[in-house]
């Protein structure tokens, strides 16, 4: 389906300053599936300005054009660096006004760029209902769709998606309002015999977990935080070091409100402030504005305790910042060893 060697998919890591070009290219090059992100900043405007505009609902054509341009400049650079396979993320939440334009631009590009059409295997839609499936499929792409509840996975399959991607509450970044964790989420989804491939993630940092997922009926593991904390990731270097620190534990994340829904962050004064704002009844747009400021602190290499740093519970199991090819080798080795131990029982 994806023309990959390993059952590993890079999760969407939508960014402000960072673009994850090196990371995506290395993952694709290693024989796993890379993932081009849906940007949150542009070459002309930083996170604070973009999120401020979004929080006021004041998207303008120029901003949308810049976001489309940024996504395609990421694709250009990924294509320059690898012949491997990747997918592209488009968040389709109702507040994500740029989604239709991003999808149109990808479809248009596939019609005239053969290299892109052959390496880009699909569009992963997330953070909303899968309403672009037909358009995406007619353009020759697969539509993968992210869900966080079994009931949503069933609905996505009924609306015709090609792959249903489930991510549990342990995950970094946006999570469901209903806290269903990866283990019951995966079992609850595979149990329905949906007759559509399932990929899954949320909390995956070692190969034993990948074997676990495959054994439960999943086709590939969907991994974000482990790759975020890698040599090629262009996330804030100091943030990567803190996330990889052996003193950082599984308990060091916090759920706080974010641009589209609740999200999981590394615990900082900044993310706790966002959480408290919600508890005190702040409006969505006040929270979004504050979040924009805190993303900007991360981008400007400011005081990390004041920043918003998205990361999943997997940080408790990550103690190094290695090259991606080494991470993938290790994941596969651990996965095979786990399988052999199981088979020997
Ligand atoms: C920094 C960061 C940015 C993210 N951005 C997006 C995004 O733009 N779109 C999306 O669908 N998911 C996004 N996610 C969620 C991931 O795609 C994925 O669900 C999650 O990383 C999987 O769990 P894990 O982090 O435990 O591996 C993001 C996660 C992180 C950590």
Walk me through the topology.
Blueprint: E1 8-10, H1 21-30, E2 34-36, H2 47-55, H3 61-81, E3 86-91, H4 99-112, H5 114-119, E4 120-126, H6 133-138, E5 142-147, H7 150-158, E6 163-167, E7 173-174, H8 182-190, E8 198-201, H9 207-215, E9 220-223, H10 225-228, H11 237-244, E10 253-257, E11 262-266, H12 269-279, H13 284-299, H14 324-343
Parallel strand pairs: 1-9, 2-3, 3-4, 4-5, 5-6, 6-8, 8-9
Antiparallel strand pairs: 7-11, 10-11
Helix pairs in contact: 1-3, 2-13, 3-4, 7-8, 9-14, 12-13
Bound molecules: flavin mononucleotide (FMN).
Structure, explained:
The protein is α/β, with parallel strands linked by helices and 345 residues long. It has one domain (8-236, 317-343): Alpha-Beta Barrel (TIM Barrel). Helices cover 44% and strands 14% of the residues. The chain has helices spanning 21-30, 47-55, 61-81, 99-112, 114-119, 133-138, 150-158, 182-190, 207-215, 225-228, 237-244, 269-279, 284-299, 324-343; strands at 8-10, 34-36, 86-91, 120-126, 142-147, 163-167, 173-174, 198-201, 220-223, 253-257, 262-266. Strands 1-9-8-6-5-4-3-2 form an eight-stranded parallel β-sheet. Helix 2 (47-55) runs antiparallel to helix 13 (284-299), helix 9 (207-215) crosses helix 14 (324-343) and helix 12 packs antiparallel against helix 13. It is globular, with a radius of gyration of 19 Å. The relative contact order is 0.14. The model has no long low-confidence stretch (mean pLDDT 96). The site of flavin mononucleotide has 30 residues, from strand 3, strand 7, strand 9 and helix 10. It comes from Methanonatronarchaeum thermophilum. Keywords: Dioxygenase, Flavoprotein, FMN, Oxidoreductase. This is 2-nitropropane dioxygenase family enzyme. One of its GO terms (molecular function) is nitronate monooxygenase activity. InterPro entries: Aldolase_TIM, NMO.
């Amino acid at each position: 389906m994806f023309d990959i060697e390993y059952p590993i998919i890079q999760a969407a890591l939508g960014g402000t300053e960072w673009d994850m070009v090196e990371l995506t290219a290395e993952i694709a090059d290693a024989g796993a599936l890379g993932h081009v992100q849906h940007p949150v900043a542009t070459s002309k405007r930083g996170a604070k300005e973009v999120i401020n505009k979004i929080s006021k609902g004041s998207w303008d054509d120029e901003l949308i054009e810049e976001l489309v341009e940024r996504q395609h400049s990421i694709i250009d650079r990924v294509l320059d660096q690898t012949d491997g396979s990747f997918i592209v993320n488009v968040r389709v939440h109702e507040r994500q006004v740029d989604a239709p334009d991003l999808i149109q631009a990808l479809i248009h590009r596939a019609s005239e760029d053969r290299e892109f059409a052959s390496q880009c295997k699909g569009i992963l839609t997330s953070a909303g209902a899968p309403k672009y499936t037909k358009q995406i499929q007619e353009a020759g792409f697969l539509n993968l769709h992210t869900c966080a509840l079994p009931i949503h996975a069933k609905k996505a399959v009924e609306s015709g998606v090609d792959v249903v991607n489930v991510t549990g509450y342990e995950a970094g970044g946006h999570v469901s309002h209903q806290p269903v964790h990866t283990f019951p989420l995966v079992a609850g989804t595979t149990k329905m015999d949906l007759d559509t491939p399932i990929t899954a993630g949320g909390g995956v940092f070692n190969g034993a977990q990948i074997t676990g997922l495959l054994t439960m009926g999943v086709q590939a593991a969907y991994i974000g935080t482990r790759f975020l904390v890698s040599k090629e990731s262009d996330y804030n270097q100091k943030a990567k070091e803190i996330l990889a620190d052996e003193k950082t534990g599984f308990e060091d994340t916090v759920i706080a409100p974010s641009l589209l829904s609740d999200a999981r962050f590394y615990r900082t004064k900044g993310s706790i402030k966002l959480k408290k704002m919600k508890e005190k009844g702040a409006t969505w747009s006040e929270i979004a504005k504050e979040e924009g400021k805190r993303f900007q602190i991360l981008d400007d290499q400011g005081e990390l305790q004041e920043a918003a740093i998205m990361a999943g519970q997997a940080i408790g199991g990550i103690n190094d910042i290695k090259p991606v090819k080494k991470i993938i080798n290790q994941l596969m080795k651990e996965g095979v060893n786990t399988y052999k131990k199981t088979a020997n029982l």
